[in-house]
């Protein structure tokens, strides 16, 4: 079954954006998907007014903004030509959008029935609410990259940190689509911490029950002990270099933000070199 028909790749023309584009083309070729390559330009109402230029409530009318837009369109055209040389049969839709990054990408996801978002780790800015909010609201799974993936076929493992309290059937269904694409084994991972401790027997039973509940196949169960979930997850990732790391995310409450600056997904994206797959719970 082809679960990836439309893939979107936001770009800022950086090295990690190129990494995302490279992976996106590999996935699209394997699944015969259409690629939307999107550059989002955020309007600046004040800084780009030229001397003598009349003020307009429409920021796209600014001379400087027009120049930026035209430059982006030229670079998008270059990317489309490069992809055409590498994958001549690949359908690519280069677009330059104008507005808020999160809202623009989410609108593309909804309007064009996007199945997967692939983006460089630099585009996901830990301190930029406009980009990291996408992690919590996107209607499609997101893959975030910190390095180049030269061969998609080398990834035959998915490390999945389960969250029995939040993981939805939709999240696991999306994950199984990635598993099918890669032909990968899923490592169902539970981290035993001092604050959330179960006996080995109970852990194994809960993992097997999770797999049965979600009708999972080609999986293995892993139970580790660590001080924190993130510490245990990072330690296990080191044992499998060529793996996607997957986990669900949910927007933190005000109290959770007071306790910690970032959640597991944000910390993982900041610290891991593995491709990180996420979907909102």
Helix content: 40-55%
| Count of domain modules | 2
- Radius of gyration over alpha carbons? 20 Å
| Major β-sheet annotation | 10 strands, mixed
Taking pLDDT < 50 over at least 5 consecutive residues as the criterion, the unreliable ranges are 45-57
What strand order characterises the main sheet? 3-2-1-4-5-10-9-6-7-8
**Proportion of residues in β-strands:** 15-25%
What report would you give on this structure?
The chain is α/β, with parallel strands linked by helices. Helices cover 40% and strands 21% of the residues. The chain folds into two domains: 1-152, HUPs (Rossmann fold); 155-281, Rossmann fold (3-Layer(aba) Sandwich). It has ten helices and ten strands. The radius of gyration is 20 Å and the shape is elongated. The model is unreliable at 45-57 (pLDDT under 50).
Q: Which descriptors would you attach to this protein?
A:
single chain; 281 residues; alpha/beta; Rossmann fold; 2 domains; 10-stranded mixed sheet; 21% strand; elongated
